[in-house]
Amino acid sequence: MLDADFFRRWMTATAAAVDREADHLTALDSPIGDADHGSNLQRGFRAVATTLEKESPDTPGAVLTLAGRQLISTVGGASGPLYGTLLRRTGKALGEAAEVGEDQLADALRAGVDAVMALGGAAPGDKTMIDALVPAVDALGDGFAAAASAATEGALATTPLQARKGRASYLGERSIGHQDPGATSSALLIAGLVEAGANGG
Ligand code: ADP
Ligand code: MG
């Protein structure tokens, strides 16, 4: 079973990965965006880590809801409300249970990803974070490592796509040939599950 500590480790592992990869994420956002994705998420996830230390919410749902709220209030770009919605909706779906199973997490995360698609209007193949998140959720039944591989493959597979949502879509065909920054950061988020599971779960 996964308790609030697991979810806290998930968020801090993601914050550390975003810190490590911030320059790379910003570099990916340079040819097809405005070169701020790394700094946007770094600001957001640092705020998440700080808030979780101070407030120590005691259920999985409360950890994710608080994290989502922080992302919405600290990240300026399009990705803030989208990631914030993902975590808040996933947290809401987990309810008030003190511990949840991996199946429950998979169902909740699917509800979160559906909410991101409803908010942003993106579908798989539009060259967005959805292209990493949907394969990850589909693979989650086979474990965290399978989900992380699926997310990474999904992010890499955005390179030949033409963007149909977000800032990159303004470039039309010129968005082809570049990996999507948001799909890349989503793969970091899913990889955080593996780390959270390995470190004391
Ligand atoms: P901004 O585009 O406002 O500068 P960021 O650079 O932080 O915001 O985030 C860009 C990423 O957000 C994109 O790479 C893409 O994955 C994701 N994104 C943008 N618009 C959407 C959308 N409508 N639906 C899903 N993801 C989106
Ligand atoms: Mg940007």
UniProtKB/TrEMBL annotation:
A biological process from GO: glycerol catabolic process
- Recall the taxonomic lineage recorded for the source organism: Bacteria, Bacillati, Actinomycetota, Actinomycetes, Kitasatosporales
Q: Which Pfam families match?
A: Dak2
The protein in question is named Dihydroxyacetone kinase subunit L
User: Which Gene Ontology terms of cellular component type are present?
Assistant: cytosol
Query: One GO molecular function term?
Result: glycerone kinase activity
Q: Give the organism, scientific name.
A: Streptomyces mangrovisoli
Xref: Gene3D superfamilies: 1.25.40.340
- Per UniProt, residues of the DhaL domain are 5-195
| Signal peptide span | none
InterPro entries in the record: DhaK_L_YcgS, DhaL_dom, DhaL_dom_sf, Dihydroxyacetone_Kinase
Which keywords belong to this entry?
Answer: Kinase, Transferase
Q: Does the entry feature the keyword Nucleotide-binding, yes or no?
A: no
Q: Which PROSITE patterns does UniProt cross-reference here?
A: DHAL
